[in-house]
Every structure is written in structure tokens, then in C-alpha cells.
């Protein structure tokens, strides 16, 4: 879900007013008479519309708070309030909303698995507590799936929950003695539920990489690409932008550089104001050029192998430099704080310049000496103060 940036003054006012009102509503749930509940469906619909269609979580919070003041035990309103607070980046209040909903519906019989899935992702304790929430969600979703024809939404949620558990056992819980077997079990079930799920196939690839099985990982990534790579732009079944960005890192890790650039170029057409996009594209083109330079790719027809190799790797590195320059511009413009990207991109640019010679972006060629063009210039703008680590 996209994060909405707000000015500091708005954020301060929100903390002073709306969350406090919502907190007082949540505190009074124990005193609420369940036999006297108001119909708040119209308010819930309005709040949902404000959040989903108008991207206005501040107004949505006001409406849902009004709804809960009339009927504080309404599960739909509580869960929507949780989602609104996630959008506002007020995670403690979101946790409180979802936890209140789970207390009212501990088995998910009334409102389903959504609240458990949210708590698995945002709970402060993480690890085993997150697994506990995932297991609750999976139990509800498995029950729904066993009742007959499983609809697409249930399939996707069950698959996502199983992949979430596998990811935890590949990362935070990787030292557990049964971590590997649990990953295998969860991913296998996810693929049985939804064989063409990009998320499940991506999780499988990540797992195979961790097992040092690059061939199997490449096969899983290729299966995922076959599902969505040729779909028309705007097709709802194309994985979201952040997923595809993470997916390119797996492709690169498996040496699938051409496929990486195909995905990145598609992302560029959708939104070219992303630092990671240009960084990954520049890095990938550098790696392609490096392979050509070392003669690891057969030349194409039309010229001698030596001429093709010489031209290709230099052209590819020149393109890599363009991508890295764009990364640099956005890094400065957004005052990005990922030190790892800055240092690695600087290293790549130095390596390219060592082979191709020094150069500057077209829009900086006429600037005076010392104005732009170097990562170090950005560091010095505010003195010698170090950039924060991401």
C-alpha cells in the first residue's frame, strides 16, 4: 500500500486530535452495549472511498472515528481504521485497532483473516508472534478453501500468508532447526494453492538461492516471468511495482541480466522517479558489459568477433553510466539516505571512467567546474556532515 507523505504540521495536528479521539473510542468498547448498535454502513463506505479512491487518509480517519463512536464493536470499521492508520504510518494505533478486532473475533469466523494478516506484518514482536498471526490467518483461509470452489481472493491471501511464513524462516528465524523444512512445506503448499502465483514463484526462487541451487532458482523466476511479462500495461494481474523491483534483484543474483533489463525498462515507463530503478539498471548494464569485455558472450553476425566485442561492451558501459548519472540526480534531488547505493554507484562510475575516460551528463557539461557531477559534491553541500545510514 502506498505511503502518503504529509507536512509536519498536519502530522502534529493528527497526533493531537484524530488518533486521540479514536483512542477514546477504543477505550470505551468495554462499556458499549452490543444490543444498541447504530447502522454505520454509509460511514464505512465513505471512509473506504476516501482512502481507496481519493487517497485522503486524514479525512477517512475522521469519518471512521465518527463511525466507531456510534458503533465501536463493528469489525469492518475497526479493521478499516487499522488500514487507515497504516496509511498514516501510525502503526501503534493500527495494531490497537486490529488487536481489538481479534479480541472480538478471535477465530476469524465473523470477519475473516485480514486482521491476522495485518498483525503478522506489523506486530512489534515479529518472529514467532508474527508466525502465530500467520497461522491464525492460514487456518481461516484453509477452512474457506475446503468449503468448495476456492475464489481468487482466498487463493491469493492463503498463498501470500504461506509465503510470508516461508520468508520469516529464511530470514529472522533461519537459525531454527526446522527452518529449511518449514520453508519447503510452506512454499509447496503455496504453489499447490496457486501454481502460477508470482509471489510463490519468487519465494521459491529466493529459497533455492539460499540453498545454492541457482538452476532451480532461474527456473522458478522464468515461470514467474511467463505469467506476467507479456501482459498489457495496466493489466490488474501484473505484480505491483515494488514486487517487480525486488524481483529484478533476484534475476540479477541468478545472472539473468537481459531479463532484468526488460523488467526495469517496463518499470521506467511506469515511474522513472525511483532511485533504485536507475541504480539497478546501471549496475545490471555494467555487469552485462563486463561479461562482453571478458568475451563471455558470442558475437552476433555482421562484424568480426573482436570488433563486436569491443563496440558492445563500451556501448553497454556508456549506457550504464547514463543510468547511474540518473540515479545520482535523483539521489541528490530526493536527499536519499541509502549509503550503500551511493558508495556502490560511485565505485561503478569510477570503474567505467577508468576504461572509457571521464565524462559528465549533458546537462552538466556547461556548468562551472565543481558544480555537480560528483557524489562527493552532494556530501559537501551541508559541510562535512556524514549522511545517515539507511
TrEMBL record:
Composition skew (Basic residues), residue ranges: 1-14
Keyword Transferase assigned: no
Comp. bias (Acidic residues): 364-390
CDD domains attached to this UniProt entry: ACL4-like
PROSITE patterns: TPR
Keyword Chaperone found: no
TPR repeats, residue ranges: 75-108
Region annotated Disordered, chain positions: 1-22, 352-390
Keywords (A to Z) from UniProt: TPR repeat
Coiled coil location: none
Protein name, as recorded: TPR domain-containing protein
